[in-house]
Amino acid sequence: MKLGVLQERRPGETRVALVPAQVPLAANPKTGLEVLVEPGAGLHAGFSDAEYAEKGATIAADRAQVLAQADVLLCVRLPEDSETLVALNGSKTLIGMADPLGNPQLIADLAGRGLRVFALELIPRITRAQNMDVLSSMATVSGYKAVLLAANHLTRMFPMLMTAAGTIPPAKVLVLGAGVAGLQALATARRLGAVTMGYDVRIAAREQVESLGAKFVELDLKADDAEGAGGYAKQLDQSFYDRQRQLLGRVIAECDVVISTAAVPGSKSPLLIDEAAVQGMKSGSVIVDLAAERGGNCALTIPDRTIQAHSITILGPTNLPASVPTHASQLYSRNLVNFITHLSKLGLLGGNSTETDDQIARETLACDRGEVQSVPVRHK
Ligand code: NAD
To answer: Which segments cross the bilayer (predicted)?
Structure first.
C-alpha cells in the first residue's frame, strides 16, 4: 500500500505532513507500506527531496502521480482545490486536518466524492490518543509564537532591567484561555521575564496556571459547569459573557500584552475584549488574538491582519504553526505516524471496512462510503 505525501496548496501553508526522519517509521517491510512524495513537498519546511529519498521514500514524477498511485494521502490541510479533488477517485483515504466542525460542508463534499476521510481534529482528547493529538501539538507552537510576536510589536521590553540609566519594570502579560496554547504562552512569556497572569472559565485551569508561576485571575463570576465533554469549555449564556467582558476590561487595562486563546469547539469564539477594553490599555500595548479564525476574542480583530486601534497593536494570526514550519511539521508528522500505525494495527488503513469498536478510529472517521460518519459533524 502506498502513502502519498502532497505539497500543501493552501495559501501561506508551509508545513508538510510527513518529515523525512519519520519515513522509516511510516513505511517499512513489516507494515508493507511505501511512501511516495510529491516533488518539493517538504521544501518550505526545510526538507529536500534528497532527504526523503535517503530515508527510503520514492519521489514521484509529479503531483498527478501521487494522486493516481497513493492509496492513502497524508496532508496537513485536506485539499479543497478542484484540480486535486477531480484527480481523486473514491478508493482513496485522506488523512489530515479539515476543520470539520467549522467547515462541515467540505466533509460533505468529500463524502459525496466517495472518499474516506480521517479528520485529525476529531481525535478524542483521551490519554491513549495523546501521541496523535495534532491540536495540542499545533497549539503548543501557536502559544509560543504568539508571545514572540507580542514582544516584537510591544513598544516596551518584557524583562525587568535595573541599569545605571534607570529601572525598567517587567511587562505584564495576560493570557485569556489557559488551554494548551495559553499555557505555552504563559510559560514562554515568563521565560522572557514578564509578570504573567492567566484566566480561564474551567476550574481545573487554575492549578495549571499557577504551576507556571503565573497569577490566576479571579473574577466575581460563577461558572460552575463551564467544563463540558473531553475537558473542553462549554458554550455559556450571553449574560455570563457580558459580565465577563466587563470584569476583564479592568484587568486588561493593567496589562501590556494580552494573548487570547479562548475557544469553544465548533462554536464562534467568545468575545472577551470589547472596544472599550482596547481603549483602556496603555498606548503601545499589544493584543495577539489566537481565536481570530473563529471570529476572535477581541471585537477589533481582523483575521491575518495586524492593525492599530486606539494606539494598540492587534494581531489576528490564523496559522502560526506555518511560521515555524520545521518543528511544526516534525510534531505533526509524529502525531500522524502514530495515528496511521494505530489504524494499521486495527486493519483499518485502506481496508474495505471501517467497522471498529476502537474509539480513536471511530471518532476520527469524518466520512466513508459516501456519507458523513462523524456524529458531531453531521449535527453541525
Ligand atoms: P481550546 O483551544 O478549545 O480552548 C482554549 C481555552 O479557552 C480552554 O482552556 C477553554 O477552557 C478556554 N475558554 C473557553 N471559553 C472561555 C471563556 N469564555 N473565558 C475564558 N476561557 C475560555 O482548548 P484546548 O487548549 O484544545 O484544550 C482544552 C482542554 O483539553 C484543556 O483542559 C486541556 O488540558 C485538555 N486536553 C486534554 C488532552 C488529553 O487528555 N489527551 C489533550 C489536550 C488537551
So the answer is: none
- For helices 134-153 and 325-345, give the axis angle rounded to 10 degrees: 170
CB 376 within 8 A of CB 119: no
Predicted ipTM beyond 0.90? yes
Gap between the Cα atoms of 50 and 28, Å rounded? 18
Residue 299 in contact with residue 274, Cβ under 8 Å?
yes
Atom of ligand 1 nearest to the CA of 124: 41
Determine whether 81 is an active site residue: no
- Count of all residues that appear for the chain in the document: 380
Beta bridge partner(s), residue 116: 93
R_g of the chain computed on alpha carbons: 22
User: What is the pTM (predicted TM-score) of this model?
Assistant: 0.94
**Nearest CA, atom 23, ligand 1:** 179
Query: What is the distance in A from the centroid of ligand 1 to the CA of 85?
Result: 33
130 is catalytic: yes
The 10s digit of each residue's pLDDT in 149-168 is 999 999 999 999 999 999 99
Euclidean distance between CA atoms 121 and 363, whole angstroms: 10
Q: For residues 58 and 267, what is the distance between their CA atoms, to the nearest angstrom? A: 41
